[in-house]
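// run 5 | inverse folding | seed 20
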């Protein structure tokens, strides 16, 4: 049995102000129900009221429907609009078109818009169209189009096609952004993604940025196609394009196609720089295509195509420089090399300078094509230095070439001060200064010319004093003993 009751709002002089109906169905499944609702204004005979203590005010074809055949719901309201539907308790649609609050929920509000829906308690949709709060409680969609929330305590402020699937998360705006994690945030941008288990993470903006599954406490500031990979934490990409982080506590501040796969490591910027999985506690400042491979506590400041492949070593910059020995440094330059077992060595700059195998504790300041190496059969101590010049070579220990061209030391404890084409001839404790000199004995100093002034002549009387004999058969310099 059904009743159709004219809901007459009496105006001045007793003339009805509206002629809407309150349809009260009292024969659902044979149960007797009593509904006390009101319809105030709007298009006559177009509204449907099937909820207790509920109200429809103005509008057209709005409906407040029962929760079930035995539960009519109560305290619901629709204020204006068209074809809006409310079901549940303490729910409100304020305006708009084809907005729906359904599925036995309560205390939710749709302020306006079109074709928005709520199936969540204590939730709000402000406006927009095709937005949906699909489950959970205490959720919010402020505005926008086709946004979806299905967690608890989550919100989408605006934008379009954004999705939140977990709890305590927020999307500010943008398009096609998705959060599948708890306690997370996407500020805006397009097609940014916080994957399942990436809790406590943030993407501020940009395009196609992603924090992958089970990576917690991470952040991407912006840029395009930046990725923080699965199962890591506490890492950040500030911006740039196509940068990757694949270990925890690491960072990339910007640049393009940089890759950090090591713990506690970072890249400031540049392009194509790589820290591999064993480069723990390492750093690349910038440049292009620089690599730190299997080297913890290493660094490259900048430059291009520089490689560090030993721990505790650094390249400041330059091009095509390479270190393969621990605790070593190349300041800069071009194609400078420190190879394996040349530990604790340094090349400051220049081009094509080399400190080669089994030659530790050595130094090349600069120049071109200078080499420190070892050719002996015993243990090599090193401690050699070439200041600069070109094509200079040291093959021994504890020796120095300050500069010049094509000078060679193959003994130990020797020094060439400069000049060209000088050679210690394998002798130890040799000193050379001049050009085209080949040593003839150890423990000697060789030079092209000597100039001595104020030297006394004669037989001499002072021990260890130099004398010149202008008359004797030797006609040379001698020392009085």
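// decoded
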């Amino acid at each position: 049995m059904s009743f159709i009751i004219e809901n007459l709002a009496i105006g001045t002089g007793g003339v009805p102000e509206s002629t809407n109906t309150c349809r009260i169905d009292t024969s659902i499944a044979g149960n007797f129900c009593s509904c006390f609702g009101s319809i105030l204004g709007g298009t006559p005979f177009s509204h449907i009221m099937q909820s207790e203590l509920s109200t429809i005010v103005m509008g057209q074809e709005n409906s407040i429907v029962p929760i079930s055949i035995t539960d009519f719901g109560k305290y619901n309201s629709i204020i204006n609009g068209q074809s809006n539907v409310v079901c549940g308790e303490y729910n409100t649609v304020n305006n708009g078109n084809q907005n729906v609050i359904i599925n036995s929920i309560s205390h939710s509000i749709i302020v306006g818009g079109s074709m928005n829906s709520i199936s969540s308690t204590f939730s709000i949709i402000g406006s927009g169209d095709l937005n949906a709060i699909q489950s959970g409680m205490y959720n919010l969609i402020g505005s926008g189009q086709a946004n979806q929330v299905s967690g608890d305590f989550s919100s989408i402020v605006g934008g379009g096609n954004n999705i939140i699937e977990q709890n305590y998360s927020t999307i500010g705006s943008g398009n096609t952004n998705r959060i599948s994690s708890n306690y997370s945030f996407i500020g805006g941008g397009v097609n940014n993604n916080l994957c399942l288990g990436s809790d406590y993470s943030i993407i501020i903006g940009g395009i196609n940025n992603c924090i992958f599954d089970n990576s917690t406490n991470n952040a991407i500031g912006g840029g395009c196609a930046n990725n923080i990979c699965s199962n890591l934490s506490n890492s950040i990409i500030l911006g740039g394009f196509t940068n990757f982080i694949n270990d925890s506590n690491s960072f990339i501040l910007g640049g393009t196609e940089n890759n950090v796969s090591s713990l506690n490591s970072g890249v400031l910027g540049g392009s194509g720089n790589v820290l591999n999985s064993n480069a723990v506690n390492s750093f690349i400042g910038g440049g292009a295509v620089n690599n730190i491979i299997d080297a913890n506590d290493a660094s490259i400041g900048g430059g291009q195509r520089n490689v560090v492949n030993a721990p505790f070593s650094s390249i400041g910059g330059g091009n095509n420089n390479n270190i393969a020995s621990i605790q070593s440094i190349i300041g800069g330059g071009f194609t400078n090399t420190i190879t394996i077992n040349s530990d604790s060595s340094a090349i400051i700059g220049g081009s094509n300078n080399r400190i080669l195998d089994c030659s530790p504790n050595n130094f090349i300041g600069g120049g071109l094509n200078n080499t420190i190496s070892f050719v002996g059969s015993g243990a090599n101590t090193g401690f050699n230095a070439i200041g600069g010049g070109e094509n200079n070579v040291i093959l021994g220990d504890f020796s120095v070439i300050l500069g010049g061209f094509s000078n060679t030391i193959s003994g130990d404890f020797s020094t060439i001060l400069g000049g060209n084409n000088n050679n210690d001839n394998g002798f130890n404790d040799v000193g050379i200064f001049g050009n085209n000199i080949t040593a003839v004995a150890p423990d000697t100093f060789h030079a092209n010319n000597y100039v001595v002034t104020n030297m006394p002549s004669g037989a001499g009387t002072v021990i260890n004093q130099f004398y010149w004999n202008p008359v004797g058969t030797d006609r040379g310099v001698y020392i009085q003993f």
